[in-house]
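This entry is passed on directly below:
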Amino acid sequence: MRSRSAFTLIELLLVIGIISVLLVLTLQAVNPTRQLGATRNAQRSSDIQAILNAVHQYGVDHRGNLPSSIPTSTPLSICQTNAASCINGVNLNVLSGAYVVAIPLDLEIASHSDC
């Protein structure tokens, strides 16, 4: 009688189980959804900083006066460039070109906004 060398079913199931556990742990550590969210938040923070710098530079150039389109009450959002109307929002078109190349636009929020 000859002995054949092969893997048993239990050995195969054990290896598949170990690989599955390692795969789950790796995916949780990497978590592509969280990484994508962190990237978007970093871009939003950078965009906000660019807008704040543009408003500050406008104030410096105009003796401390801010753009007249910035309301004193809390606005809902920043209006899109060339929007038909800008109700309850801030129109920063005066900053476009001279102080910032273009007003940054958050595509996720813009798709749900009325401005």
Summary: Strands lie at 77-78, 89-90.
